[in-house]
Amino acid sequence: MAQLIPVETFDLVIFGGTGDLAMRKLLPALYHRDRDEQITGDSRIIATSRGSLSRESYLSRVEEALRRNLGEGEFDEAHWQRFAQRVHYVAANALDHEHWEDLVELLGVADQRVRVAYLATAPSLFGPIALGLKSNGLISESSRIVLEKPLGRDLASAREINDAVGACFAEDQVYRIDHYLGKETVQNLLALRFGNSLFEPLWRRSAIDHVQITVAEDLGVGGRVEFYDRVGALRDMVQNHLLQLVCLFAMEPPSSLEQNAVRDEKIKVLRSLKPISAEAVQTSTVRGQYSAGAIGGETVAGYLDELESKESSTETFVALKLEIENWRWSGVPFYLRTGKRLRSKHSEIVVQFQDVPHSIFPEQEFNVRPNLMRIRLQPDEGVQLTIMAKEPGPGGFDLRPVSLDLSFAETFGIRYPDAYERLLMEVLRGNTALFMRRDEVEAAWRWVDGIIDSWATSRQKISSYVAGSWGPADASSLLDRDGRSWKPEN
Q1: DSSP 3-state assignment of 41?
Q2: In a shared domain, residues 139 and 189
Q3: Given strand 87-91, what is the order of strands in its sheet?
């Protein structure tokens, strides 16, 4: 296991400290890092929200959340008592900067201690909170601000948020978080490509037929239904998670892992995305919305039932055919799909290599299949390479595909840190490499806005799909037209 390096003493202020993200992800992540002694000294975790709570009441909520959200056997009473000493709570209204006295008093005057403001709030509060920090003298050279997705709902609103936060913080102090960039397998994309001479020569149009990226969820929208109905799958998942995976997969080799070296290459991919015009949107995109069905043997409601409405034009599923117009990838389609209430929860990148140029096994014509590489992001992180091999035995030359399978859990035998654990430590270290730069966010929105405009112009329909399926039939047609098909889950 890699050596765990402690971070320097810090104050981490979580705005939205009573919310779902803080309780379900941030505080469990910080508990794990404290348990592994990466958090040292008199570092403090300061939660804030509008509600008036005593510290004892807040700690009771945190303890309950940890017991609920940590894995079996991970909550330890001794570790909890140590962690609880770090946790504080103060009330502060994000829109009422003049009455942040308790927060200002707790933090003290701005000094050289690392101070992080984590905004686990609605994006509409990002600008006001940044201004409140500035007007109360809580920003210094060692201060950082973390912005959760979604960063706006289009290019114009993203620019507005970036301008408001940028008026208070320098760009290198702003950490726009996408938790997919903290996943172990996403990190291993860099190792796979640039740590192995075997793969890099093949990572291009001359060897790869096409790429599929799937981020599937079996859950519905749940308590987020009203928010989700204003957003949809394209804004919620494609603009950030899926496009970031495309960037890391398709980017040119950076000169180093230095923060801006990686991000400079990612922005080149985003700027190379071919716009999807109103003429192309019908054959290059699919929109879907789930109806009632069954998942895991249990009946689940349809989207409109959850919304308690007779109609909605919001997509809960989207599939796209994406093209990158540069020398490395020209002519190689990237097929993306993501959706709610699909058959199972899993995320993966599937790389299909070119067919062999000439088969010397004429009697095995239909058995010789292209090589596949699966990069599994969840639930079982790992890499699987499928190759052709001869079946053992005399009297024939029968071929069949076999897999070289690397499971990270089996190979390394350790618990993988949650993505938020890694990303929080990177913020505290001041490393921006795993976070989105302003130009990245805006380039992604520019491309996504083009699709949204094309949908409106073409009046593209939303296809229904049964919960528990792999989405609407139109998603299969997206590949069928090109003589390809979605690779089934293993």
Answers
A1: coil
A2: no
A3: 87-91, 44-49, 10-15, 114-119, 143-147, 174-176
- pLDDT value at position 302? 94
Give the range of the structural domain holding residue 21, as residue numbers without chain letter.
10-148
For residue 73, give the 3-state DSSP assignment.
Answer: coil
Residue 385's DSSP bridge partners are 373, 404
Same domain as 216, residue 91: no
Say how far apart CA 12 and CA 16 lie, in whole Å: 12
Tokens of residue 224, six digits? 């987020």
- Residue 150 preceded by cis peptide, ω within 30: yes
- Compute the C-alpha angle 400/470/148, nearest 5°: 115
Residues 443 and 392 in one domain: yes
Say which CATH number the domain at 341 has: 3.30.360.10
What single letter denotes the amino acid at residue 290?
A: Y
pLDDT of residue 329: 98
Q: Which residue has the tokens 């499928």?
A: 386
Residue (of 449, 466, 427) closest to 118 by Cα position: 427
Average pLDDT over residues 185-205: 89
Tell me the residue ranges of DSSP E strands in 50-182: 87-91, 114-119, 143-147, 174-176
Catalytic machinery residues:
241
Identify the residue whose tokens are 């054959």: 283
The total number of structural domains in the chain stands at 2
pLDDT at 174: 97
The tokens describing 178, both together, are 């996408």
Q: How far is CA 458 from CA 109, 278, 279, 281, 461, in A?
A: 56, 6, 8, 8, 9
Q: Are residues 262 and 347 in the same domain?
A: yes
User: 263 vs 49, 252, 259, 268, 343, CA distance in Å?
Assistant: 33, 11, 7, 9, 34
- Pair 178, 149: CB distance under 8 Å: yes
How far apart (Å, rounded) are the C-alpha atoms in residues 451 and 308?
28
- Residue 290: pLDDT band with limits 50, 70, 90: very high
| Confidence (pLDDT) at 55 | 94
Spatial contact of 309 and 284, defined as CB atoms under 8 Å apart: no
Q: Which of 124, 148, 172 is the last residue of a domain?
A: 148
What is the spatial distance between Cα 349 and Cα 373, in angstroms, rounded to a whole number?
A: 8
What is the Cα–Cα distance from 371 to 384, expressed in whole angstroms? 11
Question: Which DSSP letter does residue 124 get?
Answer: G
Rounded to whole angstroms, how far apart are CA atoms 435 and 145?
12
User: What's this model's pTM, rounded to 2 decimal places?
Assistant: 0.92
